[in-house]
Design goal:
five-stranded mixed beta sheet, 5 helices, about 30% helix, binds FE2/S2 (inorganic) cluster, about 160 residues, alpha+beta
């Protein structure tokens, strides 16, 4: 198996990691870098739990070959932590019950983060569209939309 050195900027920090040519980004993040906040919820591409932000755009880490993001800026849910506490966006999910068991929440938050950077005050329709690939077994999605709306009203 061929390995190569990848140079990534992960959550603002430059990292060099050795990864097999067929290594998936989710495995590099979780297993090599220890960033286990990114979740794997399905066999691939179905649930959105593994959503991270790559060069400003939401990406499914379980469908992304790590080698294809060499040189990119990758943001995971760990980037939301501020001085050890929750970000305003995470607090909004918590306070408006957009997070219940929490398994889908890292992917939801990262998909939302990417949306709010692009569209600071999205309509409910835009929120639903942006999160159409993020499945949740707990919330029924209404609380998720309310969480995003509250975060948008509060601003960054
Ligand atoms: S783990 Fe990536 S979409 Fe489900
Ligand atoms: S909060 Fe449980 S799967 Fe979404």
């Amino acid at each position: 198996m061929t390995e190569r050195l990848l140079r990534l900027k992960v959550n603002g920090r430059r990292r060099t990691v050795a990864a097999a040519d067929n290594a998936l980004l989710i495995d590099v993040l979780r297993d090599t870098l220890g960033l286990t906040g990114t979740k794997q919820g399905c066999d691939g591409g179905e649930c959105g739990a593994c959503t991270v932000i790559v060069d400003g755009n939401p990406r499914l880490a379980c469908l992304t070959l790590a080698a294809t993001v060499d040189g990119a800026a990758v943001e995971t849910i760990e980037s939301q932590s501020q001085a050890g506490g929750m970000s305003a966006l995470q607090k909004s999910f918590h306070e408006h019950l957009g997070a219940q068991c929490g398994f889908c929440t890292p992917g939801m938050v990262m998909a939302t983060e990417a949306l709010l950077r692009r569209v600071p005050h999205p309509s409910d329709e835009q929120v639903r569209e942006a999160m159409a690939g993020n499945l949740c077994r707990c919330t029924g999605y209404v609380k998720v939309v309310e969480s995003v709306r509250a975060a948008a009203e509060q601003g960054p």
